[in-house]
Task: inverse folding
C-alpha cells in the first residue's frame, strides 16, 4: 500500500498565468535549432509520442519533426484528442504500440507529454518487451485522488465516463519499478500540475531532469528537447544518467528526487 500524503496543491495562479510563455518557447526552439543538432544522429529506432490532456498529434508536431530530423522513426499516437483514458484510447494505444513494434522489428521508445507520459509508463509496465525507454514531459504520474491541478474542473467534466480506466491508471508509484529506463523531465514553474507529482525516485534506470519551462511549452522548449534527444541517443542496454555539456549546464538546475513520505 502507498504511504498516505497530503493532497498536492494546484500551481500558484502566477505560474498558470505564465503558461502563455509557451509561444516564446517555440521561438526559442527555432533560434536554438543549430545547438539542438549537436546531440548527434539517432540510431533510427522507433519513437511513439503521446500528447497531453485535450491535445492531439498537432501539439507534438515540433517535437516529432525535431526527432525525425535526427534520424528516428517518429510517430504520433493517431487517436485524435486525448480526452482521458477511455476504452477507445486504451485499446488504441496498445494496438499502436504493437503495430510499431512489429513494423520496425525493434522496441519502441515512448515520449509522453503530461497525461501522455502517464499512459507511456503504463504501457511500459504492461508490455516491457516492446518498450525501449520512457521519457515523460511534465507528467503527473504520481497523482492520487484528491490532488489538485489548474485544469481539474475540465478533467472531471471530460472524464466522467472513464472512471474505471482512471482507477487503473492510478497505481502505487511508491512500489512501482519499471524494468526499462525512465526519465522524468519537469519544471518547478509548471503552471498546470504540481511539479512534485512529476519526478522519479532513485534507481539504477531512473532519473529526473529539471528544466525552466512552462507546462504547455515543454514539447517545444529547447532544453527539454535536447534532453529528450540525448536520452534517446543512448545505446540500447547501456543507459547512463543525463550529463549536459559544460556549456549547457546552466540550463539544467539540480534535479529533485522523489522521496517516500514518512510514515
Result:
Amino acid at each position: 500500500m502507498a504511504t498516505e500524503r497530503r493532497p498536492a496543491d494546484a500551481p500558484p495562479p502566477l505560474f498558470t498565468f505564465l503558461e502563455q510563455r509557451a509561444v516564446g518557447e517555440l521561438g526559442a526552439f527555432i533560434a536554438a535549432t543549430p545547438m539542438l543538432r549537436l546531440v548527434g544522429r539517432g540510431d533510427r529506432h522507433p519513437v511513439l509520442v503521446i500528447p497531453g490532456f485535450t491535445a492531439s498529434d498537432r501539439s507534438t508536431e515540433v517535437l516529432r519533426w525535431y526527432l525525425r530530423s535526427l534520424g528516428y522513426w517518429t510517430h504520433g499516437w493517431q487517436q485524435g484528442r486525448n480526452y482521458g483514458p477511455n476504452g477507445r484510447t486504451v485499446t488504441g494505444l496498445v494496438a499502436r504500440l504493437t503495430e510499431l513494434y512489429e513494423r520496425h522489428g525493434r522496441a519502441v521508445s515512448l515520449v509522453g507529454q503530461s497525461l501522455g507520459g502517464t499512459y507511456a509508463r503504463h504501457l511500459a509496465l504492461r508490455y516491457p518487451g516492446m518498450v525501449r525507454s520512457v521519457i515523460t514531459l511534465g507528467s503527473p504520474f504520481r497523482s492520487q485522488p484528491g490532488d489538485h491541478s489548474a485544469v481539474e474542473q475540465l478533467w472531471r467534466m471530460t472524464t466522467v465516463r472513464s472512471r474505471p480506466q482512471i482507477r487503473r491508471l492510478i497505481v502505487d508509484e511508491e512500489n512501482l519499478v519499471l524494468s526499462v529506463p525512465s526519465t522524468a523531465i519537469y519544471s518547478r514553474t509548471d503552471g498546470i500540475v504540481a511539479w512534485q507529482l512529476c519526478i522519479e525516485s532513485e534507481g539504477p534506470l531512473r532519473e529526473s531532469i529539471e528544466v525552466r519551462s512552462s507546462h504547455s511549452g515543454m514539447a517545444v522548449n529547447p532544453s527539454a528537447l535536447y534532453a529528450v534527444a540525448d536520452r534517446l541517443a543512448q545505446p540500447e542496454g547501456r543507459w547512463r544518467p543525463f550529463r549536459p555539456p559544460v556549456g549547457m549546464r546552466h540550463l539544467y538546475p539540480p534535479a529533485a528526487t522523489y522521496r517516500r513520505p514518512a510514515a
